[in-house]
Amino acid sequence: MGARKAGAENVHTDRDQAQAIERATPKGDRVVILPPELDVSGGLPLEQRPALRSAVEGVERGEYAGIIVAYLSRLGRNLAEQLRTYDRVHKAGGQIIVAQEGIDARTRSGRLQRNILAAIHEDEREQHIERFDNLRRWATEAGIWQRRQTPIGYDRDPDTRKLTPNERAPEVLQAFKGAGAGTGVSALARRLGMTPSGVRQMLRNRVYRGELRVGDYVNPDAHPAIVDEETWLAAQTRRPIRPPRGRASAPALLAGLVRCCGCGHIMSRATTKVPVYSCHRHHSGRLCPEPAAITLRLLDDHVTAVALAELHRLQIEQTDDRTEIDRARRQIISADRELAIYLEAVSATDVGVEAFRAGAQGRQAAIDAARAELAQLLARQPARIDGDPIRLWEAFDVAQRNRLLRSLIECVLVERSGGRGRIRPIADRVRVIRYGAGIAPVAVDRHIPVQRIVLPDADDPLTIRI
Q1: CATH number for position 175
Q2: Which is it for the CA torsion 150, 151, 155, 161, positive or negative?
Q3: SS3 437
Q4: What one-character DSSP code corresponds to residue 218?
Q5: Quick one: 73 and 210 in the same domain?
Q6: Neighbours of 330 (CB within 10 A)
């Protein structure tokens, strides 16, 4: 149907078919016109053809004497499915009348005529699919935007039909940078005047990298990009910084970073006489078997010392060894080039639509895997600090320090002290885990299961220590 609406003046095929059916109805018989199947392909199986299925089942129940269609292709453009329909109707003692072709499939010559025409109609459908697929491929290679709605930050050029950045492009770029720095989706949605789900889709959309993807076809340089690759990947890998809850005026230094080893859940600041980070104990209907708690000031001082030492080490050893990152970039370029060569050299007409689609999907999967690897490598890259890190740290407020720690630390694991009155050195029950280590539990269906985390050894490469 495309943009056409049922009942409109430019939609008359259903009315024409109803008139043809009524003219071909045998005298003395009464015809029941079932609802037209609009936007339903004739190549679909009988189970997905609501009106045709209703007609066949009506014949099988004895409600109808048979089925009448205006022309054979309306019975289906799939030879095997069409033969199924004939078989079920004839077994039920019914008949099928084709108004235009006048086919009587109860005779040998009628069945031959039916099978020949059905095979032709099936071939026509396959030709249409290939023609449409080739047009979509050509439009994608040309960088033509093929959807009605344009993404925020872009306009559709009326002459070239390509996307061009508009006055909101800087807002989009800042949103990607904010997401990479840990700004929450809700805050970004308020800035852009969008819904949170719309922002999530925007951040995942590679159209902002200048990439056009239509079905199996991808054009990596279809239009000007608004964000660069590292900014886009950072938006996919960074964790949001949640605003403080309760009456606290500012987040704790280690907000969202401290985890209880007994259950794997994030510990929060408790405003007791002596502030502490403590486990909530109750999680998803289960109790933490070994809830941990630790004095806030003690843990803040310990992690600050570890972080400053790590920042100082990174500043001294600030190396430009990006061998793995450069290798991952080359792998993406190579995979992109291989897909482009395949799309240019291979035609769906030559190898068939399914084989062509499988080849394109395999090459696209290689590109996606290479991008995922690069995202992980970038996520493990430490934040570069311009100037003396200790002076910068002293100038930062608590929220800025928390943001910086999140670029260095995945989590801070805390074990239970061992019982009331028992004192364990902080170095024995706390581990500062490097960013990207993959130790923090992942939510399943929005819930993180109660899962004990074994405290790594002090010399484990996943830990940061002085």
Answers
A1: 3.90.1750.20
A2: negative
A3: coil
A4: E
A5: no
A6: 11
Give the domain-ending residue among 175, 209, 240: 240
**Any domain includes 31:** yes
How many structural domains compose the chain?
4
Report the distance separating Cα 134 and Cα 138, nearest Å. 6
Return the half-sphere exposure (C-beta side, CA atoms, 13 A cut-off) of residue 280: 12
Domain assignment present for 112: yes
**Token duo for residue 277:** 């980070």
Distance CA 33, CA 457 (A): 77
Tokens of 90: 């004839």
Tokens 């499915």: give the residue. Answer: 81
CA 348/CA 127 separation, integer angstroms: 11
Note the pTM of the prediction, 2 decimals.
Answer: 0.44
Give the pair of three-digit tokens for residue 347.
């035609």
Q: Say if residue 391 is in the same domain as residue 295.
A: yes
More confident residue, 171 or 8: 171
Query: Which range of residues forms the domain containing residue 164?
Result: 142-240
- Residue ranges of alpha helices (H) inside 252-322 are 296-316
Nearest-CA neighbor of 389 among 446, 463, 306, 329? 306
The amino acid sitting at 146 is Q
pLDDT grade, residue 204 (50/70/90)?
confident
Spell out the alpha helix ranges (H) of 105-168.
108-141
Q: Which two tokens stand for residue 343?
A: 């799309």
Burial of 424 (0-12, 13-18, 19+ CB in 10 A): middle
The stretches of 142-271 forming alpha helices (DSSP H) are: 169-181, 185-192, 196-204, 229-237
- Other beta carbons within 10 Å of 204: 11
Q: What pLDDT is recorded for position 411?
A: 92
pLDDT the model gives residue 43: 75
N-terminal to C-terminal alpha carbon distance within the chain? 68
Helix (H, G, I), strand (E, B) or coil at 92: coil
